Amino acid sequence: MNNAKLHAFIPVFYLAWSDDLLTQKEFQTLNDFIKNQSWLSEEEQSFLLSKIAISNPPSREDLNHWKLELEKIVQKDSSVTSIFDMVKALSNNDVNLLKLQPDFMKLENDLGFLGEEVISNFKKTASSITSETQTNTSFDIAKLTAILDGAQAPIINKVKSIISQPEFAYETTTDVTVYRNKVYEWCQILAKHNLGNMAYPKQYGGGENIADYFAVMETLSYHDLSLVIKFGVQFGLWGMSVFSLGTAKHHEKYLSAIGSLELPGCFAMTETRHGSNVKGLETTATYNHDTKSFTIKTPTKDDQKEYIGNAAIHGQMATVFAKLIINGQDYGVNAFIVPIRDAKGNVAKGVAIADCGLKMGLNGVDNGTLSFDAVVIPKENMLDRFASVNEKGEFESPIPSDNRRFFTMLGTLVGGRIGIPRSALAAAKSGLTIAIKYADQRRQFGPQGGSEIPILNYRMHQRRLLPHLAKTYGIHFGLQYLTNRFLARTEEEMQEIEALAAGMKSYSTWSTRDILQECREACGGKGYLSENRIDALKNDTEVYTTFEGDNTVLMQLVAKNRLSEFRKSFGEMNSLGIINYVFENAKTAVSEKNPIATRKTDEAHLLDSEFHLQAFQYREKSVLAAAARRIKKLIDDGLDPYDAFNVVQHHMIDVAQAYLERITLEQFQIAIATVEDEAVKVTLIKLAQLYALFQIEKNKGWYLEEGYMEAVKTKAIRKMVNQLCWDIRPDAVALVDAFAIPESCIAAPIAFQ
Amino acid sequence: MNNAKLHAFIPVFYLAWSDDLLTQKEFQTLNDFIKNQSWLSEEEQSFLLSKIAISNPPSREDLNHWKLELEKIVQKDSSVTSIFDMVKALSNNDVNLLKLQPDFMKLENDLGFLGEEVISNFKKTASSITSETQTNTSFDIAKLTAILDGAQAPIINKVKSIISQPEFAYETTTDVTVYRNKVYEWCQILAKHNLGNMAYPKQYGGGENIADYFAVMETLSYHDLSLVIKFGVQFGLWGMSVFSLGTAKHHEKYLSAIGSLELPGCFAMTETRHGSNVKGLETTATYNHDTKSFTIKTPTKDDQKEYIGNAAIHGQMATVFAKLIINGQDYGVNAFIVPIRDAKGNVAKGVAIADCGLKMGLNGVDNGTLSFDAVVIPKENMLDRFASVNEKGEFESPIPSDNRRFFTMLGTLVGGRIGIPRSALAAAKSGLTIAIKYADQRRQFGPQGGSEIPILNYRMHQRRLLPHLAKTYGIHFGLQYLTNRFLARTEEEMQEIEALAAGMKSYSTWSTRDILQECREACGGKGYLSENRIDALKNDTEVYTTFEGDNTVLMQLVAKNRLSEFRKSFGEMNSLGIINYVFENAKTAVSEKNPIATRKTDEAHLLDSEFHLQAFQYREKSVLAAAARRIKKLIDDGLDPYDAFNVVQHHMIDVAQAYLERITLEQFQIAIATVEDEAVKVTLIKLAQLYALFQIEKNKGWYLEEGYMEAVKTKAIRKMVNQLCWDIRPDAVALVDAFAIPESCIAAPIAFQ
Fold first, then answer.
1. Confidence class for position A52, pLDDT limits 50, 70, 90
2. pLDDT in tens, A413-456
3. Given B361, B384, B413, which residue is the final one in a domain?
4. Chain B window 79-138: which residues touch A at a Cβ cutoff of 8 Å?
């Protein structure tokens, strides 16, 4: 092309044929554009039209040539930011062309281009903010690890060193029998190290250290989760049921053999027809006056004990929950020790055991069903701490209500609802370690002309992983708090602590479910390969939301507890009282819900930990008060209370959720207040801010409905969440390194590239 | 107790010792209450206090006796609704007691009781609305099935009858080799039935029926998902790449052998280092002028082909995507047929194959890695529909841009993004069938004195499953629409259809992920047992969100397409123009966003399909316009376009999401309009209403931010969602029966109780 004004149309040609896929209609738009240039001669028009005729594409070489010319222009002059700017530069400032600026702008629009994006494709070395961010640790990782481990550091380190030994190398077989035996062997090794009996009294060989026992459960969870569950079934469920529900004679007879794993056993509560509603169990233990014994009986197939860990292969005895029957009268659910097989593996007479078969995960645990066809056990096998049959064959108990006795018994077993969420927490930490380390190394896409960038630099990837990282830190401190409350419990506090445990169990296990799902997807195809361990982490923890209490059912219990606390602290439901309840005092009410506060968006306010906690508390109390009012109104309107509670079930989940979120944030903030190292503190504060604002963003519909925030504020919060993700990204790898999970446990090749 | 006024305190004694767990503090409250009754003699007080002394519990018999007395009162007089009412009835209207009403009300509050709930526990047969709802089908199931199957009913029924045969009995081994071979055998049987070549031209033995091919994929997905993926790899990816990218010589040579499964093959695109960014593939195909051949080479281990289905065991050839190099010049990614092993299983010279090993799911598919150490293939093995090397050794193509050519090639393979979401849809239908049938039969808890009730009667359970059921119906019609658009496509529409396919692939596979997660949890422990099949459904479909394009990346593509459409239809971004765009015309704007509309909550309005669609359209357009404005502003403010697009990634997901939700609702409504049977129509309308309102509820934060709705309306919508769940519940079983999934495929024992 020797004609400058024709030369100037190169950008148009190039765009027509290059990366952006123009449709036939858009080619027509280009044609019309050229035909409208009446200042061009007919010949010139024809020439231009021939260059953009669909039937006559340029050669690949022509295209490359055009591209080089355009690159030269863009790279020479940084003020070139639109297609017209390129045209102008190529035209030698032809007057006719200069007049065409509006036409070219319209053309850009008609074709759906963003001029700046097109231009950036011609820049040689596109450096960008997105490509420059990278891992850059701002604090001492070991100091943070020390804060996380706290007083349990010695036992945590001991467990880590044991599970890093070669005999704990992962078993990768798909043969369930091999896997189950391997897990059993691991448990034996752990028992030898006196880890199983950690919580038992010293007189039975135990460590008498419940805090350490929980730390053992959590740390073992970095390794194999079948191992943790098998370990928990043996030493926690089986052993602690004998300890908590039995008396000295049982402790002396069984505890040290349980703690050493000489006597493997089961915890047989759940039945096929009764899982959540354990009060409705149908297995019976009928007292025989003549022989001073009990007959254990499974009435029908649907009443068999189900999912019982240790039952299919290894268990020799079981704590069986059954309705005690004396002289035909039902005395409610009690617990009995029933032998199910001998040490050689022969199944006891009258006992039928079946294997639950393959499961979604935890296939290293031998779950089975148990049924009892008139199995006779001696009287002393009744775990008789809370109820017994006296020498005359009469029922005796310090707790007259069958129901209350049963819940008191269950209350002694609440430790399981601490061990499980802490195990779930460890699994979430493992998943995040794998996904974040991979995201820091894995490169995909990048600016034109630049190299590919780590996927953790992408906003979506940050949004997918970093709020989960913040939540995991929050839950860590929340579970520490739960553990401490449990260890220091008084009788008076038990109901509250039971509700807290039920709630944190749900909150942590659901969080882990969501986190591992996101980790799997964030690792793409690599996340699907079993070698990268998200498979096992995800499928093994999948049932955590179900066992030790179905989460949805537990959340209803938590909400009912909150409701009953609410009724106690605040019986009369007049509006002023509720406002006082929600805002604690009227002064806060005014300052929180006035038009200035609801529209306040300055950074200092949005990042203020007091604002966060107040917003969480406000939500917690308002949702609770509203639920109480709704139930009252439904019943006043004539609904049966049972129906009324069904109607508000969905609301009740919010009551529990809001409570658990407040607990988590509060404990996160309290923990941070004690941190002395400044760099660690600054980082943890950012995480707590991200946790708080991410939850508020999630609940923004509610805050807007309540008028607690206006749109300008919720939008500012969304922006701040993005900013915090961006700010935390350089520390993300250090923050998972601080979990200090043994490399042999992480194992995933993608975490070590 | 012979004294009536003391007798009247029985409710207090009973409450102290019965089911409700009073704490020590609350016992104190009771003590204080009694001590404050100055009208009682000291002796009387002592007597009462002795009954509620913690150290002196009543006997179990006393407790039972009290209970019987209270039951008598409550059952005799239905006006008894508080603890005080019971006291009154027991007191013979003692004047002193009658004055105590406020005190007793306060006591109820102090103890945290809800009087009505306590009373309802004494009612003998508590019948309630919750316990009375049950399955009660309102329409002809076969008629609904006919609507779902449409014109594909014959092929669907044919496939169902084949996969119900005994040779398709599920393989339950954990031995991967056995499973893979079984899946391969199944594929051979399907090939014999001419199902594999369904989409190929008749001249190569095919059925030339793409619509039927998609129906085959979807229906096979009721059976084993490894089977579907193996089938799809062979006949879809491998066969269709030869068909779509090759020319007559390739079709003649390969197609009929591929269709009969005599020639198993692979589709080798993804590399370890390049999954989403396929444009960056590193494998090379270098042209050798002297021998007129290509040398296929894997530069480094990180560039090996990865996750390739059929590669580890069965594949004999592969369509390999590689950069074409002629005389040292790179001509972009092209496709080549490369033999990888012979019919006896001997791996070809220069080819290295490794097994990807165990995966989270789809273990019946033999995924492997492929690398090529200077493997030489003849010139004719280049799939040369879009590019070729001529006799002179020069590159030729009708599409000059390498990039554009590559995306044109990819465009021909868009069928995979229809087959996968339809397979995901089938898996969701299977999961919902199992979970809903189980929930209809599984009983747990119930009103005091009544029997346990089906868990599907609980509001939370309805909320967990029924909106998913509604969404599944919506997606069914959305995918029918996608299929029809694809079948009737013109060149002009291809970009839109590609974006639609990418979007619906993400929307459907994410929906299936969420649905199967909820189904697993909703089935509790039973859902964790592999025999109930949610395990396989969930783990097999887990990677659907990753393969055929990572969902998060695809959503960005969809949003970019929407943005470019937006720019075309609406280049100048002044405010009036945007309002016109968002509301289509000013008249609607006024009627939709005025204070009456934003606060309108009457039932007719909330259930109005026009309101639903307008709300979806408003969201779609507003979110899109806002994204366009934001990007423009960021770039105007000096941000690199690459950074600007990173900043808005999260917003872009919303753009795509809102578009897909609108498409789904719109197609759902259009499909309903053609239904003739009134009973079916009424039911589908309820489902569409539930789908619409549930999405609006989910997005309520946005609607409130925008002022499109006020709190009074979003709250009314939440209530309506609950009501719709309740109304649909009796038809829930019929609605999954209408999917008409073969019983042998459902297989889960819990679905057949």
1. confident
2. 899 999 999 999 999 999 999 999 999 999 999 887 788 999 99
3. B413
4. 105-106, 108-114, 116-117, 120, 126, 128-131
**What span, in angstroms and rounded, lies between the C-alpha atoms of B668 and B620?**
17
Interface with B, mutate which of A528, A564, A726 (most B CBs under 10 A): A528
- Asked if B581 is an interface residue toward chain A (Cβ–Cβ < 8 A), one would say no
C-alpha of B555 from chain center? 16
Complex ipTM: 0.94
The SS3 of residue B284 is strand
What is the crossing angle of helices B609-636 and B678-698, to 10°? 30
B contact residues 487-546, partner A, Cβ 8 Å cutoff = 491-492, 494-495, 513, 517, 520-521, 524-525, 527-531, 534-535, 538-539, 542-543, 545-546
Asked if the structure places residue B131 within a domain, the reply is no
What CATH number is given to the structural domain containing A457?
Answer: 1.20.140.10
Domain for residue A354, yes or no?
yes
Q: How far apart are the first and last CA of chain A?
A: 52
Same domain, B338 and B296: yes
The number of domains in chain A is: 3
Amino acid at position A657, single letter: Q
Indicate yes or no: CB of B21 within 8 angstroms of CB of A452.
no
- In the DSSP assignment, the letter for residue B263 is S
DSSP assignment of B217-245: HHHHTTS-HHHHHHHIIIIIIIHHHHHHH
pLDDT digits (tens, 9 = 90+) for A589-620: 657 778 888 999 999 999 999 999 999 999 99
Is residue A478 a contact partner of residue A485, using CB atoms and an 8 Å limit?
no
Does residue A482 share a domain with residue A594?
yes
How many Cβ atoms are within 10 Å of A195's Cβ, its own excluded? 24
Q: Which of A571, A579, A577, A581 is nearest to A632 (CA)?
A: A571
Which structural domain range is residue A85 located in? 4-124
pLDDT score, position B295: 98
pLDDT at B479: 98
pLDDT of the residue at B574: 56
Q: Nearest-CA residue of chain A relative to B449? A: A642
Of B369, B393, B413, which closes a domain?
B413
Q: Which residues of B touch A650 (CB under 8 A)?
A: 459-460, 463, 722
C-alpha to C-alpha distances, A608 to A674, A695, A701, nearest whole angstrom: 18, 15, 21
Bridge partners, residue B378, by sequence:
B293
Instruction: Note whether residue B721 is domain-resident.
Output: yes
Q: What percent of chain A has pLDDT over 70?
A: 96
Which residues on A lie below 8 Å from B568 (Cβ)?
Answer: 26, 109-112
The residue to which tokens 């019982």 are assigned: A308
Task: Assess whether A398 and A267 both reside in one domain.
Answer: yes
Instruction: Please indicate if any CB of chain B lies within 8 Å of the CB of A331.
Output: yes
- Do residues A119 and A181 both lie within one domain? no
Residue A170 CB neighbour total at 10 angstroms: 14
* A379 and A436 together in one domain: no
Angle (CA) B59-B61-B67 rounded to 5° is 110
Residue B299 has pLDDT above 60, yes or no: yes
Looking at residue B699, its amino acid is N
The answer to whether the Cβ–Cβ distance between B525 and A277 falls below 8 Å is: no
Beta bridge partners of A274: A271
What is residue A187's predicted lDDT score, i.e. its pLDDT?
98
Whole-angstrom distance, CA of residue B136 vs CA of residue B145: 18
- Say yes or no: B81 and B207 in one domain: no
Can you give the CATH number for the domain in which B227 is found?
2.40.110.10
Pair A7, A90: CB distance under 8 Å: yes
In a domain, B152, yes or no: no
Same domain (yes/no): A624, A686 = yes
For chain B, say whether A693 makes contact (Cβ under 8 Å).
no
Q: Is A564 helix (H, G, I), strand (E, B) or coil?
A: helix
* A397 and A424 both lie in a single domain: no
